[in-house]
Structure formats: C-alpha cells, structure tokens
Write a structure and sequence with these properties.
Strand 5 and strand 6 form a beta hairpin. This protein has 207 residues and is α+β, with helices and mostly antiparallel strands. It has two domains: 92 residues, Ribosomal Protein L25, Chain P (Beta Barrel), CATH 2.40.240; 103 residues, RNA Polymerase Alpha Subunit, Chain A, domain 2, CATH 2.170.120.20. The N and C termini lie far apart (56 Å). The radius of gyration is 25 Å and the shape is elongated. The strands form three sheets. The chain has a six-stranded mixed β-barrel with strand order 1-3-2-6-5-4. Strands 10-7-9-12 form a four-stranded mixed β-sheet, with no helix packed on it. 20% of the residues lie in helices and 39% in strands. Part of the 50S ribosomal subunit; part of the 5S rRNA/L5/L18/L25 subcomplex. Contacts the 5S rRNA. Binds to the 5S rRNA independently of L5 and L18.
Amino acid sequence: MKSLTINASQRESVGKKATKALRNAGQVPCVIYGGDTIVHFAAPEIAFKDLVYTPDVHTVVVALDNGTKINAILQDIQFHPVTDKILHIDFVQIFDDKAITMEIPFRTVGNSRGVRNGGVLRFNLRRIKVKGLAANLPDVIEGDITELKIGNKLYVTDVASDDFTILHPDNTVICQVKTSRNAVAEEEEEEEGEAPAAEATEAASEA
C-alpha cells in the first residue's frame, strides 16, 4: 500500500485556546493513538489534501519536527459543519507485525456479459473492510465481472486473498447485474445463438 509523508510539529498545549490558535493559523490539530504514548501534533491543512480528498487509501508517515517518524493510518476526521474545513484528525499508530483494519476501494475488471445484453451493474459495496499487515494490503481490490449474467452477483468470497481477511459475512454482495427492459430477451437470444455453434463443432468432430 502507498504511503504519504506528513511533516508536522509536535504540540504540548492541547487546550481549547491553543487549539483555536492553531486553526486560526491554518494548522490542523491531530492526535496519534495506539503507541506507548498519545502523540499530539499539528500540520498545515494543505498537507492532508492527498490523504483526505481522494478515493484512494494510504498509510501515513508522520514526520515530527523533533526527528521522530511514526507510521499510522487515518482513524477519524472532523469537518466544520458550514465551511467543511478540517477541524481535527485522529490517527492510529501501526506496526510491521500487527494487523490493521482498513476499508479498501473496490474496482471491477472485465466487461459483464449481462451488461452487454442490456443489464445494469449495481454496487452494494464500494469499499471492502479487511484486516491484515499494512505491507500486505493492496491499494485497491479488483473483481472480474466478465462472466456475470443478468441476475448474477459478485460476492466478497470471489475476491478473497491470502494476504488479508475480509471482515464481511461470506454472503455479502459486492455488485450484481440487474435486469432492464428487453435485457432478459437479448441474453436468451445470445445463449440460443451459442448452442448451434457448439452443436456444429460437435458434429464436425464426430465426422
């Protein structure tokens, strides 16, 4: 998984007055949990642009001004209800030998047979919750929908991997091909069109 570096300043004062002063200066107050101690820091709001305003997921290296570097993942973020400015971010420290839980974006590959015949691909999940070592987690989870006919579904078990554990029930549907007008008839015609070709091949082999 890709990692972003955020250059930050460790902060000692964590009261309301100090926090307000940081925000007025264009800084975002943050905290990192999960290590031996809780770490409070701040960084310019623009430093979080590629972490927050993207569909991608990343791990983070928080590079503090005292030379300390902490590996972490974003846990929670608070926005201003009117301006949408970032008010506060919580991170969780990660370790090479400890599994983490993340939601990984899902992406389809292939061209669904059912969609070619007029069906519509509907998504139940856009992100898949998984658990594994940070080094083993992918940037995106892909699922092949080429063979999905109208009425068929792609389940989380279809994208399982030895690199991580999927934290959804096995019967969870990621996406499915739903019917639309004339779609069923078109797919039936395509299947009927395949049958003679298969029979002709059989007859040729017998001859």
